[in-house]
Amino acid sequence: MAHITRPLPTITQDSQEFWASTHDHAMKLQRCDRCGRFWYYPGPVCHYCGSTAFTWTPVSGKGTIYSYSLLERARGNPFEGDVPIAIILVRLEEGPVMMSNLVDYGDGDLAVDAAVEVTYEDVTDEVTLPVFRPAAR
Predict the structure, then answer these.
(1) Which residues contact 75 (CB under 8 A, 6 or more apart)?
(2) Under CATH, which number does the domain 60-137 receive?
């Protein structure tokens, strides 16, 4: 693994299963056993009905760009060597919105409502980040 200078997520008891699933390149999210809705970011209770009963469930990894920003300058920032960086909010097919990055994109791919699919960036032996790329056409 390369020398990492950017901040990485802290794996907590609540998020451990999520990070294990991304490490396996098969993302899972919590799905409420009461109301049936998925939520993200991992936590101990359903974001919609407050139930503490949930199941870690595989998700499709498909979604659309809900919003985006293109970071073109990062002077003095841990991401300085990585610009430009496409920061996106993805609305997953299952409902939740998650922040990530768009990778392997070309002109016209960074747009609201553009279809995307998850891929994985193995950053360290412990952390694999879910990132997105334009969906296969």
Answers:
(1) none
(2) 2.40.50.840
Per DSSP, what are the bridge partners of residue 91? 64, 97
Please tell me which of 1-5, 6-10, 15-19 the model is most confident about, judged by mean pLDDT: 15-19
Dihedral angle over CA of 15, 21, 24, 27, nearest 10: -130
Note if the pTM is more than 0.85. yes
Q: What is the token pair recorded at 56? A: 């870690």
Q: What value, to the nearest 5°, has the Cα angle with vertex 8 and ends 10 and 123?
A: 120
User: Which secondary-structure segment (H or E) carries 21?
Assistant: helix 16-23
Per residue in 120-136, pLDDT (tens digit) is 999 999 999 999 999 98
Report domain extents, the chain: 12-59, 60-137
